[in-house]
Amino acid sequence: MSAEPVDVPIVGFRRWGVRRGELYSGIFVSGRFVPTPALTMVAPRVRPQPWPVGEARLAKCFALRGHEAPYSDCNCGLSAYYDLDEEPDQPAPDCVWGAIVAWGLVVECETGFRAQFARPIALLDAYNRHDFAHPGRRAAAAAEAYGIPVLARDDLIAYAGWHGELHEAA
Fold first, then answer.
1. Phi and psi dihedrals of 91, rounded to 5?
2. d(CA 72, CA 121)
3. How high is the pLDDT of residue 170?
4. Whole-number Å distance between alpha carbons of 124 and 138
5. Long-range contacts for 34-37 (Cβ within 8 Å, ≥24 apart)?
6. What SS3 state is found at 157?
7. What is the pLDDT of residue 5?
8. What mean pLDDT do residues 131-147 have?
């Protein structure tokens, strides 16, 4: 499982936290979004940065190991799943799912991949049972800011296929 350059861009599915219409990488803990926890541990005064609008995001490793991301013996890289569940888990009000197109060095894993470069291409139009205050508006605001569509699950998967290679189910 080494990092290899891909010949054709690949697409995957991931979740973000949305803040003020911007997409952030991070984790969800006890119903709350925590942006980029690895960065916070290494550089506590550095503010997490949203995914860039209109350009690719470059993966960086925050483990201070001195390697280019993604690296096979680390967890660094821009991660995504190959498949999108029928009803993906949304553990917090500010959680949204979407599709990315990825390229550059890629580490392929069992259920997904970690890439060197990626950008969002569409967001999922899904009911979030935790979002009482702004149902659907967080995804719509992020989609407008990034200039990408909000699509139903099957349309999202089809749309992603136009932007890169979908993983073939075994």
1. -80, 0
2. 26
3. 43
4. 11
5. 36/62
6. helix
7. 80
8. 90
Query: Is residue 80 within 8 Å of residue 9, measured between CB atoms?
Result: no
From residue 98, how far is each of 66, 113, 169 by CA, in Å?
30, 15, 19
Query: How sure is the predictor about 64, in pLDDT bands with cuts at 50, 70 and 90?
Result: low
Instruction: Name which of 6, 26, 4, 3 is nearest 16 in CA terms.
Output: 26
Asked if residue 27 lies in contact with residue 18, where contact means CB atoms within 8 angstroms, the answer is no
> One-letter amino acid identity for 149?
P
The two structure tokens encoding residue 98: 């979407």
Band of pLDDT at residue 169, cut at 50, 70 and 90:
low
Report the Cα 164 to chain-centroid distance in Å. 15
Q: Does position 42 have pLDDT exceeding 60, yes or no?
A: no
With CA atoms as reference, report the closest residue to 83 among 110, 122, 123: 110
Q: Are 106 and 4 in contact (CB under 8 A)?
A: yes
Give the pLDDT score at 45: 61
CA distance linking residue 58 with residue 46, whole number of Å:
17
| Structure confidence at residue 27 (pLDDT) | 79
> Measuring CA to CA, which residue among 26, 103, 116, 25 is closest to residue 67?
116
At 142, is the secondary structure helix, strand, or coil? Answer: helix
